[in-house]
Design a protein that fits this description.
The protein is α+β, with helices and mostly antiparallel strands and 185 residues long. The protein contains four helices and six strands, in the order αββββαββαα. The model has no long low-confidence stretch (mean pLDDT 90).
């Protein structure tokens, strides 16, 4: 088995973990985090554009996100896009800057969010296991056809398993970090 095969597996697993980390960053945690707005699409210049292409976003403090449109004429469109989103937040528009106040989460909502992120992480673990299964099946086929010796096949399977275990540990670390962020008041 050449190294490029294992590099491809590693890349596939890394991409799954990166996607999970990005999804976790967009989950509201009670603190102001501009990543909450990543999936907001704004009607500007005659087309749908991501919010980060029409404005800058930053957290001014732990409970407020400031949105500064590049073009002040887009402030109303940004406000409308945030109101239509599933965030449940109402922006305060002063014409030049929009402010989003992030209310603190109730204990019940915190528990719901923890369940939700746990499911996200579990779904990504399933993706990693599917990648592992596909790779091991390929290795076994190569072994049966005589392209790889039995010892090399076993070593390759062990290596794929270790890559999967490492990815799973990374996901667990991401989960614990996000859970801590959500739980702390």
């Amino acid at each position: 088995m050449d190294e490029s095969y294992f590099q491809e597996i590693d890349d596939r697993m890394r991409n799954a973990i990166k996607a999970a980390a990005h999804e976790l960053a967009m989950v509201r945690s009670g603190r102001a985090n501009p990543a909450l707005l990543d999936r907001i699409m704004v009607e500007a210049y005659g087309s749908q554009m991501p919010l980060n292409q029409v404005a800058t976003t930053n957290a001014s403090d732990a409970t407020t996100i400031l949105i500064r449109p590049f073009d002040k004429n887009n402030a109303g469109a940004i406000e409308k896009a945030i109101l239509k989103s599933d965030l449940g937040l109402t922006p305060q528009n002063d014409g030049t800057v929009l402010r989003l106040n992030i209310p603190s989460l109730t204990q019940e909502r915190r528990q719901e969010l923890v369940k939700m992120i746990k499911q996200m992480v579990e779904d990504t673990k399933v993706q990693l296991r599917n990648i592992r299964r596909d790779c091991i099946e390929k290795i076994r086929k190569m072994e049966k056809s005589g392209d790889v010796s039995e010892d090399n096949a076993r070593d390759a399977q062990d290596r794929v398993q270790k890559m999967t275990d490492t990815g799973t540990e990374e996901l667990d670390t991401l989960f614990k970090k996000k859970e801590e962020e959500i739980i702390t008041i």
